[in-house]
Design brief:
This protein is mostly helical and about 450 residues long. It folds into two domains: about 190 residues, no CATH class; about 210 residues, no CATH class. The chain is about 70% helix and about 10% strand. The strands form four sheets. A two-stranded antiparallel sheet has the order 1-2. The protein has a two-stranded antiparallel sheet with strand order 3-6. Strand 7 and strand 8 form a beta hairpin. Helix 2 packs antiparallel against helix 5, helix 5 crosses helix 7 and helix 7 packs antiparallel against helix 13. The longest helix has about 35 residues.
């Protein structure tokens, strides 16, 4: 394989692994902050114990997320130096804000929270975890703004062979960025809610610490239900924005080959990318795709054949990742709505608890599918319409990237195994018996 493909594989591996930990950090920090706030307001020790129990999982997850995030950013200099040279004035400034404004605040107060249980007042300690939660989400916000600029570059000019920032406000306020922010954070909160519910389901099925895990389950359920609704509504809005600024991605998402007025939405498709057609098309709803993309059933949707072949993204992977993400999004809404009606009789609902126990990988799959669509669907561009990925790769030997790719996979496998072992063992052990009020 050439240096371009190896660099793509290395960045993809690092990103996919890193994003196994990021969403849980974003959502679990908020849940822990709510738990500790309830402890401060009510004096109920069980909420304090809940914050401590889930906090240990949060700390393990956070540590691995930080380590993998740092190595990911280094790749912009090692594997993608031409990209960094070309757009560093814009992309670098956004990452610098993320580090100085959010990451340092997050890192400082997570230490205060972890070691301050017996040194701070309950109110001050609760403030520290809220600062961690706010900083974590601010960190994600700036990274998502940077990624959104790659998807829809605005507020810049090409000068002296480089992209230079001319309108910072345009970069941070563009609609595409805020659609991405809401969509990604909602996915993170859904994942966190399902993670909490899965662990609670394990213990409730065994009738262990019933009060403790019932309260935790309801909190995770509320978070996941609210943002399952938000995700579906906002996902439609995000799709319309994609249709406006990345029409070729929309065509790949829907495997639409011919430009079509009143374009139908098919319930089942099998793309045939080699022959530029769909081998199977079942259940077409006339005008539905036009309505979803442009809010009118008669709108014309541009097909893949109207774009140069070399500027089309991989169709099958974009199509499948989109379908997986959407299908799981509706499943999450169904499961959380059912859970809402069972929230007061969880122990008497073993069938539902078993489903929620084994559903925990699904939000991770949905999140990874979403990022696959976002990044693969942008290809062959690293900065959409401005710079191709093939022009962004560093002028280095393939052997260098191959060695580092193998090293990354080996080290990340060890880190992942250690992290998941620690998280799972702590989760299954449950809270300390002597620290929990009788159920």
């Amino acid at each position: 394989m050439d240096v371009l493909m190896l660099s793509r594989l290395q960045f993809a591996a690092a990103t996919i692994f890193h994003f196994l930990f990021v969403p849980l950090t974003l959502g679990l920090s908020i849940l822990i902050a709510i738990m500790e706030t309830r402890y401060v307001r009510t004096g109920d020790e069980e909420y304090k114990n809940m914050a401590k129990f889930w906090g240990k999982i949060f700390l393990i997850n956070f540590a691995i997320g930080v380590v993998t995030g740092i190595t990911l950013e280094f790749q912009f200099g090692t594997n993608w130096s031409r990209y960094s040279t070309y757009v560093g004035d814009i992309f670098g400034s956004l990452l610098a804000i993320e580090a100085t404004l959010a990451f340092f605040l997050e890192s400082t107060f997570i230490a205060v929270w972890a070691f301050g249980w017996n040194k701070l007042s309950p109110r001050a300690h609760a403030v520290s975890i809220w600062l961690v939660a706010i900083a974590s989400n601010l960190s994600a916000l700036w990274i998502l703004i940077a990624n959104s600029w790659m998807q829809h570059p605005v507020g810049f000019t090409i000068r002296n062979g480089r992209a230079e920032l001319t309108d910072f406000l345009a970069v941070v306020t563009q609609p595409f960025a805020w659609h991405t922010i809401v969509h990604t954070l909602s996915a993170a909160y859904i994942l966190s809610g399902f993670f909490v519910m899965s662990i609670c389901a394990y213990h409730l099925l065994r009738k262990q610490h019933i009060t403790f895990f019932t309260k935790s389950f309801r909190m995770g359920l509320s978070l996941a239900l609210i943002f399952s609704v938000v995700e579906i509504v906002q996902g439609h809005m995000h799709g319309a924005e994609v249709a406006k600024v990345q029409p070729v991605k929309l065509a790949a998402m829907e495997s639409l080959w011919e430009t079509t007025a009143a374009a139908p939405q098919y319930l089942f498709l099998i793309p045939d990318e080699a022959n530029e057609r769909n081998s199977v098309s079942i259940g077409g709803i006339p005008g539905a795709l036009s309505m979803l993309a442009y809010h009118t059933p008669d709108a014309t949707v541009k097909g893949l054949k109207d774009f140069p072949k070399e500027e089309r993204p991989p169709v099958t992977l974009s199509f499948l990742s989109f379908r997986v993400m959407v299908a799981l999004g509706f499943l999450f809404l169904l499961l959380t709505v059912v859970g809402w009606f069972k929230r007061n009789k969880l122990v008497e609902s073993p069938g539902y608890l078993k489903i929620m126990l084994y559903a925990v990988p699904l939000p991770y799959l949905a999140a990874e599918a979403g990022w696959t669509l976002a990044e693969v669907g942008r290809q062959p561009w690293v900065v959409y319409g401005i710079m191709k990925t093939s022009d962004a790769v560093s002028p280095i030997a393939s052997s260098q990237v191959l060695i580092s790719l193998i090293a990354f996979i080996g080290i990340y496998s060890l880190l992942g195994a250690a992290a998941f072992y620690l998280i799972i063992s702590h989760a299954l052990k449950g809270p300390q018996v002597e620290a929990v009020a009788a159920s």
